[in-house]
Automatic annotation (TrEMBL), chain A:
InterPro entries in alphabetical order: DUF3526
Key words, A-Z: Membrane, Transmembrane, Transmembrane helix
A Pfam family per the record: ABC2_membrane_2
Keyword set includes Transmembrane: yes
Protein's organism: Pseudoduganella chitinolytica
Protein name: DUF3526 domain-containing protein
Ranges annotated as spanning the membrane: 35-53, 147-166, 192-216, 228-249, 255-274, 461-480
Region forming the signal peptide: none
Highest taxon of the lineage: Bacteria
TrEMBL record, chain B:
InterPro entries assigned: DUF3526
Stated name of the protein: DUF3526 domain-containing protein
Keywords assigned by UniProt, alphabetized: Membrane, Transmembrane, Transmembrane helix
Record organism: Pseudoduganella chitinolytica
Pfam family, one: DUF3526
Length: 488, 451
């Protein structure tokens, strides 16, 4: 901006009016700068492209999963009359549905499987993750609006703002302005306001995409609003930091280097180094080890095929006592079915316990990464964004836990049919009507409630932003005093 | 030599330059250490899995100490296959953290067992690994930019540019010498940690040299580009801005765009469809007459046609025929699934012809055998091993021969491969051309610098 643009008798005007004048002048300067306009436009175009492309991509994924789920349900219904235990082994497939906001931020979605094969006595892994079927390119990141705003926007903001104060200092205009009575606070406030506005303008297409989805889909309206708040706070944070760095260092060049350094460390480096630290701090067993551990625990619980097994001998005694008969053949229900039902109960308890243990380890790893949120706000934003987009680890875990719960209900319902509808005599050779399992309830995936997300991810992230903001405002106050003292 | 020393002192005198080089050295060392650590962790995990496996197999073997049914032995014995990290994996960890590196298979239908995923923490995987390839591809260019953005403008801003041009040495040669020096320093900062890692991981000299060559080419590409920009811009800040923009576009934006395009052009939902089809093929057989399954099986495996016929009760030969027929029924789908994944890999390699960052990733991961292709090769080897198991068990199952401890002891054993990758020559050539081109442009631009 040009010093001439400011009225000479600056001292006579109010603080907001002065700040507003500075802000307008800075805006004018930015508008005139071909570099600033080009960089800003490129980012905006990129955001729009990313929004359209990833929205389209997620719609295709959603359609694909819905189609596969439909196919799996059809296959389930088309089963002929069968022994219920055959149905237990036939199993069922469920596919994780996509959240309406997932297009904005794919989160961990490409790294988790979405296909769960549910069968009796076994717990299968979620298979066919995108990352497992893609080339190394996927590890570069994906072009989503979240990627553009989280990773690229800070760099553009830094470019637009690195000279905001430092360049005036280099040209000697700063001294002139202060000498004319412009309060340092008004100068900084004006610069901060103008660059915060620019940052919001850069993020506008992404925020608009969120607003549109929020307006169209009432179920995620508040999610979208919280996300808008998070992203807006994030870009404003960068704008403030960029202006303050520009005000704190003697030369524009140093400001640029410092800001790019901050960008490299907080956006590129820390998010990659910390997971490595976490992975080596909290070791996790491989799937085979867990599988074998469960297998051993199952064997220790009791062998239903062994007539002398203590657990199942006790089970039989209780069953016989309950029905007041002496032999399993005299029971009014199918004893074989009861044993399988009991076995499923025991193994499923183990599955769920091991799942929670594994999730605990992953949470511990995430905690190590999360501890750096304050140093690297992008980590805080990612947590907020992934959680609200329904593409975070917790959402995936919820799918796995719900899948396991559904598997248990489905298998036990079939085992109930085995108990009640199949005679003990000649058990294996009997079949029951397919209407029995056609009537079983379908898998319904309930996303995590908003209040949980807000409490676990949004509030901590916004707290991080608030702390940063407080720190930056404090820094601005200090810098403003320094400017006025002419200490530059 | 004296001028060289002088230039070296000049280069290291700048706090920014010296600091940047020290930082790059530290980051490369950290990345190498982290890569070695990750490889050691996977090796340790494989050892634990192998121990677990020995216990499991010993327990099954114990049951057959007096002989038994081959069909049941086949049913209850898991066979461990593994895909240990190769020597170069520490430098380019690639897909190893998202792909299963050990799979256990039984004699049942292969297609239902082949796609189990490893238990990963998706949050950590999504961030990507901090390995040598990452430092080289993402971070090294930033350091090149830090060292080069003010090459000419810095002299101009300091008012020395006229002086430089007044020297008896032509300007272009001076710039070249300065760039060569900085190039050497950056290369050394990257190379020394890598060499340390390569020696400790037992990488062969050929592969080590090739990685160093690729590092040199990639860094040369950036130096060339940086020189071309530095020669043209008026201010050092302008140089930094333009170079960073180029960096962001070449390493962040275009690769993600390419990835998105490939994902769109080559969808691979076939994996899940394949599973559905395979299950259907196996499980419908339970409700069909057994002869139907056997006829289907004999059509593709006529060598078992004349074995003793089926009886009324459950028989293992029918059970395994059913599983094999299930695999055979989806052979076409398997082909299509594989073809889609291979196509993704190939398109990625093709995009490396224009994007040096992609070329480096493709070449390094291919050499380290940590890419999708090497995972697919592993799955192929699992399939071949499964075939070998079928070949071993079928005579006992179909001819109803007894299966005792001797037979159990002679089970086919999984052979590890050496974990060595291959050289993607096209990628190396493309990288060489791009580096040459950038260097040429850089040299030409510097020749035109006027005070």
């Amino acid at each position: 901006m040009s010093a001439v643009a400011l009225p000479v008798a600056a001292a006579a005007r109010s603080f907001p009016a002065l700040a507003w004048t500075v802000c307008r002048a800075e805006w004018r300067a930015l508008r005139r700068s071909a570099v600033a306009v080009t960089a800003g436009l490129l980012l905006v175009v990129l955001t729009i492209a990313a929004t359209l492309v990833s929205h389209e991509q997620m719609r295709a994924v959603e359609a694909e999963r819905a189609h596969l789920q439909h196919e799996a349900d059809e296959q389930w219904n088309a089963q002929p009359d069968r022994h219920p235990h055959r149905v237990v082994h036939y199993g069922h497939y469920i596919f994780r549905p996509v959240s309406p906001l997932a297009f904005f931020d794919f989160g961990v979605d490409p790294y988790t499987g979405h296909t769960l094969y549910l069968e009796g006595h076994r717990q299968n892994s979620a298979n066919f993750s995108e990352a497992g079927q893609s080339s190394v390119l996927l590890r570069f990141g994906q072009l989503t609006p979240a990627f553009v705003v989280q990773t690229l926007a800070p760099l553009v903001i830094a470019f637009l703002a690195f000279g905001s104060v430092a360049r005036e200092r280099e040209r000697g205009q700063l001294r002139l302005l202060v000498a004319q009575g412009l309060p340092g606070g008004a100068l900084l406030a004006g610069k901060l306001a103008s660059h915060a506005a620019v940052a919001l303008l850069l993020a506008a297409p992404a925020l608009a995409a969120l607003a549109v989805i929020g307006a169209l889909d009432a179920a995620v309206r508040w999610h979208a609003l919280w996300m808008m708040a998070g992203y807006a706070a994030y870009v404003v944070l960068w704008a403030l930091a960029a202006v303050l760095v520009s005000a704190a260092v003697p030369r524009a060049r140093d400001a640029l280097l410092a800001l790019v350094g901050c960008w490299i460390v907080t956006v590129i480096l820390l998010p990659r180094v910390l997971p490595d630290v976490a992975a080596s701090q909290v070791p996790r067993p491989t799937r085979i080890e867990t599988e074998v551990a469960i297998h051993k625990e199952v064997a220790a619980l009791g062998d239903s095929h062994d007539p002398n097994d203590p657990h199942f001998a006790e089970f039989r005694r209780k069953v016989l006592a309950k029905y007041g008969v002496a032999r399993v053949e005299d029971l009014p229900v199918n004893y074989g079915g009861l044993v399988i039902e009991e076995g499923e109960r025991l193994t499923s308890e183990l599955f769920v316990r091991h799942m929670h243990e594994e999730f605990g380890r992953q949470e511990a790893q995430a905690g190590i990464v999360g501890a750096a949120q304050l140093a690297s706000p992008v980590l805080a934003l990612r947590r907020l964004s992934n959680a609200l987009a329904g593409s975070d680890r917790a959402s995936h875990e919820r799918f796995l836990l719900e899948g396991e719960a559904y598997r248990y209900r489905m298998v036990q319902a079939l085992n109930r049919l085995h108990v009640n509808e199949v005679r003990y005599e000649g058990d294996r050779d009997q079949r029951i009507g397919s209407h029995f399992w056609r009537a079983l309830p379908r898998f319904v995936h309930e996303p995590i409630g908003l209040s949980t997300i807000v409490q676990r991810h949004v509030r901590p992230a916004l707290t991080v932003f608030a702390l940063w903001l407080a720190g930056l405002v404090g820094g601005a106050w200090w810098l403003a005093r320094r400017l006025e003292r002419g200490a530059f | 030599m004296n001028t060289f020393k002088l230039e070296l002192r000049l280069a290291l005198h700048s706090r920014l330059a010296a600091g940047a080089l020290a930082l790059l050295l530290a980051l490369a060392a950290l990345a190498v250490w982290s890569g070695l650590h990750a490889v050691a962790q996977q090796r340790a995990a494989l050892d634990r899995v192998a121990a677990v496996q020995r216990d499991d197999v010993a327990a099954v073997a114990h049951k057959y100490r007096t002989g038994g049914e081959a069909g049941y032995a086949a049913y209850s014995t898991p066979h461990l296959t593994d895909h240990p990290p190769g020597p170069l994996a520490f430098a380019a960890f690639g897909q190893r953290d998202v792909q299963p590196f050990a799979l256990r298979v039984r004699l049942l239908g292969l297609q239902a067992q082949l796609y189990e995923s490893e238990s990963i923490n998706p949050e950590l995987a999504a961030a990507g690994r901090f390995d040598y390839a990452f430092v080289l591809v993402y971070l090294a260019p930033l350091f090149v930019i830090a060292l080069m953005h003010d090459l000419v403008a810095g002299e101009r801003e300091a008012g020395r540019l006229r002086l430089v041009h007044a020297l008896p040495v032509p300007g272009a040669r001076l710039w070249r010498r300065r760039i060569a020096l900085r190039f050497g320093l950056v290369l050394a900062a990257l190379m020394l940690p890598f060499l340390g890692g390569a020696v400790s991981a037992g990488v062969g000299p050929g592969a080590t040299l090739l990685v160093i060559g690729i590092t040199g080419l990639y860094v040369a590409f950036w130096f060339g580009l940086a020189a071309a920009v530095a020669a043209r811009v008026r201010t050092s800040a302008g140089g930094a801005a333009v170079l960073l923009a180029v960096f962001v576009v070449l390493t962040l934006v275009l690769p993600t765009l390419v990835n998105g395009a490939i994902g769109r052009a080559v969808p691979v939902s076939k994996g899940a469809e394949l599973s559905l089809a395979q299950r259907q093929a196996v499980h419908t057989a339970w409700d069909r007459p057994k002869e139907e399954t056997m006829t289907k099986f004999f059509r593709t495996h006529p060598e078992w046609r004349d074995t003793p016929p089926l009886t009324e009760k459950f028989q293992w030969k029918w059970y395994y025929a059913m599983h094999q027929a299930g695999d055979d029924a989806v052979a076409g789908d398997v082909q299509a699934y594989r073809a889609a994944m291979t196509a993704r890999e190939q398109w990625t390699a093709h995009s490396g012809w224009l994007l040096p960052s992609v070329a480096v990733q493709v070449v390094l991961h291919r050499m380290a055998a940590t890419d999708l292709k090497s995972q697919l090769t592993y799955l192929d080897r699992v399939a071949a091993f499964h075939q070998q198991l079928r070949g071993y068990f079928y005579p006992y199952i179909f001819n109803e021969r007894p299966f005792g401890p001797r037979e159990f002891a002679r089970l086919p054993q999984w052979q590890r491969d050496d974990g060595a990758g291959s050289v993607a020559l096209a990628g190396v050539a493309a990288l060489g051309l791009l580096a040459l081109l950038a260097a040429g442009v850089g040299v030409a631009a510097l020749r035109r610098v006027r005070p």
